[in-house]
Amino acid sequence: MSPLLSIFIVVVYVLIMLGVGYWCMRRTKSVGDFFLGGRTLGPWMSAFAFGTTYFSAVIFIGYAGKLGWGFGIQSLWIVVGNTIIGTLLSWTILAARTREMTARLNALTMPELLRARYDSKAMQVISALIVFVFLVPYSASVYMGLSYLFQKAIGLQYNEALFFLAILTGVYLMMGGYFAVAISDFIRGIVEFAGVTLMVYLLAGMKGGIVESWRLLLDHRHMPALYPPPPAAGAAAPTGIVFSGWIILASLVFITSFGPWALPQMVQKFYSIRSKADVRRATIIAMFFALFMSFGAYFSGALTHLFYTDPKVDFAPIIDAATHKPNLDLLMPHFITTFVPGWLVLVILLLVFSASMSSLSSLVLVSSSAIVIDLYGTVVSREANPKRTMLLMRVLCGVFVALSLWIAMSKVDVIVNLMVIAWASLAGAFLAPYVYGLFWRRTTKAGAFAGMASGVGTSIVLFILWGKANIPVAGAVAMIVPLIVTPVVSLLTPPPPKELVARAFGDK
User: Fold this and answer.
1) Helices 96-105 and 415-439: crossing angle, nearest 10°?
2) HSE-CB of 274 using CA atoms within 13 angstroms
3) CA triplet 133, 372, 121: central angle to 5 degrees?
4) Considering only the top CATH level, what class is 3-229+268-410?
5) What's the pLDDT score for residue 158?
6) What SS3 string covers 41-101?
7) What is the distance, to the nearest Å, from the Cα of residue 380 to the centroid of all Cα atoms in its chain?
8) How many whole angstroms separate alpha carbon 465 and alpha carbon 101?
9) CA gyration radius for the chain?
10) Alpha-carbon span 266 to 431, nearest angstrom
11) Which stretches of 206-341 are DSSP H helices?
């Protein structure tokens, strides 16, 4: 397929998304409409919004490439975790309870919920700063992954692709807010579902079908020693802590499965759903969507073992010129554009583009709300001047996009590391205060603060001490520590006021 035709189809797709944004802009009248769609979304839109935010270019490019190659067929354990824990259990356990409590407390964001639950303005401010600081590199990782694919599939230069995606995200989101995100997520979800199905079917078909490909991958089930990389001949053995590949893999399963339980951009989907009955239907839809998307990404990544064993394959395009080592962020773009038909490359491009646009929209929206609703809102009520609040939200959407663009242009780290650092730090900060706050009445403000501090502190310290190779293990530890610290501190401190607990839990 010619690059001009590919560009034309992408432009048509973009215009459709912008049309949705403009239509939604005319229906968005309040801050609640802009950020949560007025809490009126049905099960299909809510489930697709959750799934398309969960699986972005980071999954299809960074994770599928590095982890599919690094762990082969064993990377499908991440699929099991993402489907059962990250989607089915998160919706079953958290969604209805979150929807009810946020409605009772009139909370639009995670920081607002924590402020109302624990009666602490300081917690809202600190939470907002954590959201903004750690969602910027996460957004940058999505831009990086998508730009690599645009670079290979259409011929755009990396920086050109970044600017195109940044401008599109900013304009689209500033117009329609979450309502635009939800409607277009449904459209994008259909594209993603079709794209994943075609991608897996055709790639596996080149090796005899899914069953035969699975058998061949089981014959390659040993993991290449990417964790840690093998020392060169004659080089000294690695120093410091070195975890086995299985510990790294288990940590990645834990982070990517339990992380969504507390990531603000994921939890937001629970706030906006229409009713408790819709939660049950959305749970089933979201689970099947997660199964197809995660399997498609990681199985495709594992399939690289069956294609790159051919000595005739030219690895030059994915070799980093500076280090002379393979750049695994480029593996999936090279794999897709080398081994699949041109028309399917475009389908996959639209698939990854769709997933990434949803993730970026949610990240930008949640980050801008951290400043406008949770920082500015602690000084001036968001309801006092809704037009000014919405204007600030739109302006800060642009500011956040610009910051993410700057990090992505700097190529500060590999995609997987950026995402794991962001996920682990955010989940470490919010998992314990949020989940205990939903279910355990005895959780205290001191316990919540201790959990938040121990999560962020542990992640930062261990990321520094253990180095890049052990980032997944550090992230998993940073999520586990607050789950222990929060209840211990809560039991050692006076119980929260009865009226505060009654308001949060809807006691009569």
Assistant:
1) 70
2) 14
3) 80
4) mainly alpha
5) 61
6) ECHHHHHHHHHHHHCCHHHHHHHHHHHHHHHHHHHHHHHHHHHHHHHHHHHHHHHHHHHHH
7) 31
8) 39
9) 22
10) 12
11) 210-219, 245-258, 264-272, 276-307, 331-339
Distance CA 116, CA 282 (A): 27
CB-neighbour burial class of residue 220 (10 A; exposed 0-12, middle 13-18, buried 19+): middle
Q: What local confidence, expressed as pLDDT, does residue 173 receive?
A: 58
Look-up of token digits 């607050």: 482
Q: What is the Cβ-side half-sphere exposure of residue 278, based on CA atoms within 13 angstroms?
A: 18
With beta carbons less than 8 A apart as the criterion, state whether 168 and 147 touch.
no
Which amino acid makes up residue 251?
S
For residue 229, what pLDDT is reported? 43
Where do we find the tokens 């209805």? 96
Look up the pTM and report it.
Answer: 0.78
Which segments in the chain show pLDDT lower than 50? Answer: 35, 37-38, 222-239
Which residues are CB-contacts of 45 (< 8 A; sequence separation ≥ 6)? 182, 183, 185, 186
The Cα angle at residue 259 between residues 101 and 75, in degrees rounded to 5: 145
Q: Which two tokens stand for residue 439?
A: 């279910």
DSSP string, 318-344: GB-TTT-SB-GGGHHHHHHHHHS-HHH
Q: CA-to-CA distance for 143 and 353, rounded, in angstroms? A: 10
Sequence spans of domains, the chain: 3-229+268-410, 413-508
Nearest residue to 404 via CA among 154, 177, 146: 146
Lookup: tokens for 335 = 């794999």
- The label of the residue with tokens 């009810």 reads 100
Interval 363-406: pLDDT, tens: 666 666 666 666 666 666 555 566 666 677 667 666 767 776 67
CA distance 311 to 448: 55
DSSP string computed for 6-33: HHHHHHHHHHHHHHHHHHHHTT--SHHH
Entry field: residues in the chain: 508
Task: Write down the number of H helices and E strands in the chain.
Answer: 22, 0
Instruction: Tell me how far apart the alpha carbons of residues 347 and 191 are, in angstroms, rounded to a whole number.
Output: 8
